[in-house]
Amino acid sequence: MNSVIQYRRTQRSRWVVAVFTAAAVIPVALLATGSYGPVETGARLTIGAASLALLLSALAFSSLTVVIRDGHLAWWFGPGVVRKTVPLSTIAAVEPTTTALIDGWGIHATARGWLYNVAGRGAVLVTQANGKRFLIGSDEPDRLAQAIRSAARSTGSRLLQE
Predict the structure, then answer these.
(1) What is the CATH number of domain 5-9+64-154?
(2) What is the CA radius of gyration of the chain?
């Protein structure tokens, strides 16, 4: 069975890469130059492990890919560390929107449902037939909302034909 991709977009965040990389490299550089003075082996290992964790987090959360394919809306961060999939048949409504400044970035609950984003404030608010809502960040929210509507119709979903 060949899979036809109806929509695919990857949004990247240079800000996440820059901040996480700086937070990882600066302590290691200070340690290497002797700026901390004498440092115990345990502290050195802790700094190294924390720096590695920050670099891996930069890789994992510096991009968000959204795909519509095979009757599903799917999205994941980075290489797929955090991945979600929702059948199009469960989607009742979609609406391009803007997140509040206080919502920030990442994966967390907001007043309008779970938010998944890496950059900017553009998003699509998705409401499922069971009433659950979530927001997917996008640098092209109008196009993503239209792609979800169109794909849902092509699968025979009646939920979005109101």
Answers:
(1) 2.30.29.30
(2) 20
What is the H or E stretch that residue 85 is in? Answer: strand 83-87
Here the tokens at position 44 are: 């050195």
**Number of C-beta neighbours around residue 106 at 10 A:** 14
As a dihedral over the C-alpha atoms of residue 76, residue 153, residue 123, residue 95, rounded to 10 degrees, the angle is -150
If you average pLDDT over residues 127-141, what whole number do you get? 95
Q: What is the pTM of this model?
A: 0.84
Tokens 């009757």, located at residue = 71
pLDDT tens string 148-157: 999 988 876 7
pLDDT digits (tens, 9 = 90+) for 67-119: 999 999 999 999 988 899 999 999 999 999 999 888 888 889 999 999 999 99
Q: Are 127 and 152 in contact (CB under 8 A)?
A: no
Q: Which secondary-structure segment (H or E) carries 25? A: helix 14-32
Mean pLDDT, rounded, of the chain: 90
Domain spans in the chain, listed from the N-terminal domain onward:
5-9+64-154, 13-60
CA angle (60, 64, 68) in 5-degree steps: 130
